[in-house]
Fold:
Amino acid sequence: MFKDCLDRVRENGPLVHNITNYVTVNDVANVILACGGSPIMSDVIEEVEEITTVCGGLNINIGTLGAAIPAMLKAGKKANELGHPVVIDPVGAGASRLRTETVLNLLKELKVDVVRGNISEVKTLAKGSGTTQGVDADVADAVTEDNLDESVAFVKKFAKEKNTIVAASGAIDLVSDAETCYVIRNGRSEMGRITGTGCQLSGMMTAFLIANRGNELEAAASATCTMGLAGEIGWKYMREGEGNSSYRNHIIDAVYNMTGDQLQEGAKYEIR
Amino acid sequence: MFKDCLDRVRENGPLVHNITNYVTVNDVANVILACGGSPIMSDVIEEVEEITTVCGGLNINIGTLGAAIPAMLKAGKKANELGHPVVIDPVGAGASRLRTETVLNLLKELKVDVVRGNISEVKTLAKGSGTTQGVDADVADAVTEDNLDESVAFVKKFAKEKNTIVAASGAIDLVSDAETCYVIRNGRSEMGRITGTGCQLSGMMTAFLIANRGNELEAAASATCTMGLAGEIGWKYMREGEGNSSYRNHIIDAVYNMTGDQLQEGAKYEIR
Amino acid sequence: MFKDCLDRVRENGPLVHNITNYVTVNDVANVILACGGSPIMSDVIEEVEEITTVCGGLNINIGTLGAAIPAMLKAGKKANELGHPVVIDPVGAGASRLRTETVLNLLKELKVDVVRGNISEVKTLAKGSGTTQGVDADVADAVTEDNLDESVAFVKKFAKEKNTIVAASGAIDLVSDAETCYVIRNGRSEMGRITGTGCQLSGMMTAFLIANRGNELEAAASATCTMGLAGEIGWKYMREGEGNSSYRNHIIDAVYNMTGDQLQEGAKYEIR
Structure:
């Protein structure tokens, strides 16, 4: 039950090690706190193994790479050794060879629990190269009711090949391992006009995975529903004159106030 | 018409490559989304040429320099080669030799479409050295009704010497090439109590330049009016107990909701 | 009087040089502006001496270390030479050897006016090693009414050993030099669910120290009360549906609007 997944995050208070970009890092930290976890950020190679050790899981986000690639690998190997869940967010994969190759290499070197990106980024990784336009999904790649069957088949195949769960975010979210796919219809299109809602989801998802070991697919799906539902609830609090900056606050606030029951009732998904 | 400049940003959805500081980067991303553009941040030398290539223009902001100087130069040369507009924001020029010299060198090595800074920073660049106090303009440098004629003459001369448009922000904004100067009286003094309204303007201005090629001076002036007018509109939504943190949100929200007509009516400027 | 401490910040407009983490840096900048100061961020070794020279004081925060350690040392030595106040925020000391040793080394090499951290971080520094869980204080370390006497004795001893003021934040804040301890009961527990309220306090405290030279202990205590009281005032403005993201804005807004008289009346402290 999704209710239990969220309740366990609140009870467990998971520590999340984030190696993430400097663009959206503050919102990632606040949403992890909002859902009941505790964030720590470190991309310094001298300390990442120790930081990962005191945490329960690792969130790797390649939004701004800088000197962090060796630290990502080192922290990831340590997390694997400790049996901690690892999430990778392939921000902008396809926009540069460095991004695409970094993620493909991390997928080869590490046991990754979830790859959480937009559908264009996931397609880039499946093909090994790509044409993503910046950090937003390409309209041509969008998962729609019309191409849903083939999209579900695609994410299952990718999940099988890479031996990971894939969480492809968009108007319709797909969260899938090789055999089962959650098709999720929470959220609002206006969330795409805020920087970092995807990054936030990856951070929060890591907290859900830590608190729900052995139940990774449902944990990833329930985190996705939590984010989407927070987007719906947050929108209801939009006042006259408000736009994307206030909407960002309302969404994190909605995560902060969300109860397990509210999630259970508001989650809109089917399993394929 | 300023209305057309904003409308074209909304229609065009320009991708902006930002090499910018880690202090205000989140707000820069959100304001670019608010005006209708899409931001991508990268200062990694291995990928900046590719990132600039998928984008339509480049915003270079020296607020925190780190290892990014060679990346700024490399991205800038590529943007020039592709005919993309380049904006430089000389944050804190004058506060250190490194900042002053970095900007002067970029101005020498690159074709820069707009230098967008506060008046103290611009004066520092004109003199080749400076005494800026931190990142805020010196009161003694302020453009006022009393020194307006000489200030207009100064920015025209600087624009001519550097073969660029200069957008000097303050209580009165001056946006000028060698021959024409927009004197803009939008905005509120309380905007100076928020970190990064200048950085936000530079990011948004790059989006305006991309969507209005061949019309750079009007694009830069209309972006300046958009920011100032958003400051006026945002202030009207200030509630009891609110201060600079909420004001920041209201301003970005006002950009998000601004229509071309609203800009056309609210823009306060004269041409000299 | 605490009233005078805040009023002097507003009159003086102190420039604060911050070498701080990229997670909470935007909020640190905005809270420094809110209290009447002006922030500049630089961790680039080539310029930190010049930046520190144009500023009135230095705030060193080790939340994300990167390449900044040599810059911290260089800026700190220059600040010492100039007689500027120096604040150190030992974020996550105990979570890695690098963090613990970096702070201990800075304390050995520099004259530090205030160490401002949570009680677990301070205990780690006193012992020379630690077991902090991430960046939040350990429940077992919390200062309570039951252990208040020994906690006060502990911070006085640490302050004496390190020849610094210590400001240990928590449900009860202790701000002490070797002889006098302010025991402060402002604030709300929900502040711990926002990332960076501690970092904000360290930045604001540096502004208070600059504007109140020769009165460091009272300056540090009044900054601590200002932050806690802002947490109380900000909470009153929480609307239906709001959570930690909006609370962050309300707190900075409350600092922005706080008067010296409001601080004087709202400060809850005793001296031991």
